[in-house]
């Protein structure tokens, strides 16, 4: 494989007009251009398809190859072409990212094939460069095939002369013809003079050929070195272009940051304006409070003058102050209790209303119980006169005492009931059956009496709660009177509170001034950052412009160098034709 690669490299360098004149210079000129024209892509596809079909290999159609074939088909094409050079080559999906660039580099491909670009070789942004590389490889293989076949079939000599069927030299170049003519004329004269032998003409001719070959090899080496330099410059230009793309991204990022700085600056300006408005309002409020404070100072001074004029004892004033503080405490506690009572008033009103309803129900229950007892005694033949003589209970919901509510004292009513029950028991002791019935009636009566007593006790508790609520209302009126008396003390407390508020306003004014200074400093820092960003952007623009001019200048130099190389290749072609 090494001899074959060296042969191909020599052919590529010496005869580049046939293999690279249509592809390599164009690729070198377009090394920094990411897209190829459709015409060049079609030419590459035609070259690849033509070479593969000449070998009897039909992997895909030209349309599929132009658009980018599936990865498996591309692997088959690579293996087919690479095995023409090295039969042991095996490109797979796992090793293609490393083996393909390595093969092209060893084979002398003038472009840089990065490993990262081969991870997705059939992608739209990678397929064009891979298509050009395949076309280049097909052209080199095609030329090597034609060159090797012609040399073998025609019997090419070591000196580059094609010998005919009878051993005659077929000279196809004027320069070679001139060289052979000069050497033949020279040695013919020597032969006439008897100074020529059969070996001298061959030695001289070989010396001339060696000199020409050494010159040609030096020219080839120079061109190879120039090509390597061009490859290095191309790689540098590619890196510079990538760096320029990164610079563009950085510029876009800087623009976004600049917009954010502008938004922050606008928000800071709005905050400053709002703070100034708040400061003005605070100053006006402070001015009003200052006027009020001056008025309070004047009154305080008048009061002190009055105290001095009346010769009031300071200890008395201290005692009065302590009493005022204690009174303030009592007032606050009283206000708290008043608020609690105000919250309890709706509940008490609701409870009173429910108590009235329960009293009415109790009256109905008691009347029903009285009628039940009377009816029970009548049905059992008992004496009901004593029960009829009992006056019915009349519940008065507006009464304030239990006697007023019931119309009779509960103890009196219970005593009357006990007497009636005792009398009834005495009258019904004669009959066991009557006694049993009476006991049942008495038990029922006791149950009713107990229920009535419980109802009355609940009613009395609710009535006592109503009395307490009434007492609280009276206390509330008393407290309101006391509150009116202490209004002057509260006013003085308000004056103290006003003084405290004035001090807080003064502290607030100091804080506002400090905040205003801080906002001014932030605005200055923002302006400085803005200027710094503008300077950086200006510098970046200048650097980018200089880099662009430098790149254009270097590209022009590369183009001129390529033109010179093309001209030299034309000259070398003429020299090479001497060997042909």
TrEMBL record:
It holds the Pfam family Ndc80_HEC. Residues 37-143 form the Kinetochore protein Ndc80 CH domain. One of its GO terms (biological process) is cell division. Keywords: Cell cycle, Cell division, Centromere, Chromosome, Coiled coil, Kinetochore, Mitosis, Nucleus. InterPro entries: Kinetochore_Ndc80, Ndc80_CH, Ndc80_sf. One of its GO terms (cellular component) is nucleus. Residues 220-358, 428-525 form a coiled coil. Acts as a component of the essential kinetochore-associated NDC80 complex, which is required for chromosome segregation and spindle checkpoint activity. Component of the NDC80 complex. This is Kinetochore protein NDC80. The lineage of its organism: Eukaryota, Sar, Alveolata, Apicomplexa, Aconoidasida.
């Amino acid at each position: 494989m090494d001899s074959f690669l060296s042969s191909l490299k020599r052919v590529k360098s010496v005869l580049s007009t046939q293999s690279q004149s249509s592809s390599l210079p164009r690729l070198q000129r377009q090394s920094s251009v990411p897209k190829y024209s459709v015409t060049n892509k079609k030419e590459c596809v035609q070259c690849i398809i033509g070479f593969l079909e000449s070998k009897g290999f039909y992997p895909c159609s030209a349309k599929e190859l132009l658009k980018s074939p599936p990865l498996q088909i591309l692997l088959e094409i690579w293996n087919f072409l690479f095995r023409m050079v090295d039969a042991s080559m095996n490109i797979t999906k796992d090793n293609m990212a490393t083996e393909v660039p390595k093969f092209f580099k060893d084979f002398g491909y003038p472009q840089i094939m990065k490993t990262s670009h081969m991870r997705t070789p059939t992608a739209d942004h990678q397929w064009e460069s891979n298509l050009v590389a395949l076309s280049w490889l097909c052209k080199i293989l095609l030329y090597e095939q034609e060159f090797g076949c012609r040399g073998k079939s025609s019997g090419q000599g070591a000196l580059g002369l094609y010998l005919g069927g009878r051993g005659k030299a077929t000279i196809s170049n004027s320069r070679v013809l001139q060289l052979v003519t000069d050497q033949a004329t020279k040695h013919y004269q020597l032969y006439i003079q008897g100074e020529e032998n059969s070996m001298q003409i061959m030695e001289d001719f070989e010396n001339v050929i060696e000199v020409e070959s050494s010159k040609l090899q030096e020219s080839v080496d120079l061109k190879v070195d120039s090509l390597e330099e061009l490859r290095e410059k191309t790689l540098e230009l590619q890196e510079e272009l990538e760096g320029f793309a990164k610079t563009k991204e950085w510029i876009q990022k800087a623009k976004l940051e600049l917009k954010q700085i502008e938004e922050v600056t606008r928000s800071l300006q709005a905050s400053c304006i709002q703070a100034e408005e708040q400061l003005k309002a605070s100053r006006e409020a402070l001015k009003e409070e200052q006027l009020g404070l001056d008025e309070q100072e004047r009154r305080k001074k008048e009061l002190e003058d009055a105290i001095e004029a009346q010769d009031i004892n300071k200890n008395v004033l201290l005692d009065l102050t302590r009493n005022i503080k204690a009174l303030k405490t009592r007032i606050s506690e009283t206000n708290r209790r008043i608020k609690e009572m105000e919250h309890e008033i709706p509940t008490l009103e609701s409870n009173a209303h429910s108590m009235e309803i329960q009293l009415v129900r109790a009256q109905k229950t008691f009347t029903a119980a009285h009628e039940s007892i009377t009816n029970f005694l009548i049905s059992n033949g008992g004496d009901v006169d004593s029960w009829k003589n009992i006056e019915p209970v009349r519940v008065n919901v507006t009464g304030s005492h239990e006697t007023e509510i019931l119309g009779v004292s509960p103890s009196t009513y219970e005593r009357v009931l006990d007497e009636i029950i005792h009398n009834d028991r005495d009258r019904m002791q004669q009959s066991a059956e009557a006694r049993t019935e009476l006991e049942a009636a008495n038990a029922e009566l006791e149950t009713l009496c107990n229920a009535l007593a419980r109802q009355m006790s609940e009613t009395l508790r609710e009535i006592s709660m109503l009395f307490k609520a009434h007492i609280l209302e009276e206390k509330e009126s008393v407290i309101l009177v006391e509150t009116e008396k202490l209004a002057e003390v509260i006013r003085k407390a308000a004056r103290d509170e006003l003084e405290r508020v004035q001090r807080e306003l003064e502290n607030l004014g100091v804080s506002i001034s400090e905040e205003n200074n801080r906002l001014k400093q932030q605005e200055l820092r923002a302006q400085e950052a803005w200027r710094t960003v503008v300077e950086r952007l200006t510098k970046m623009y200048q650097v980018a412009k200089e880099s662009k001019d430098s790149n254009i200048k270097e590209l022009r130099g590369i183009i001129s160098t390529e033109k010179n190389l093309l001209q030299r290749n034309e000259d070398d072609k003429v020299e090479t034709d001497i060997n042909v």
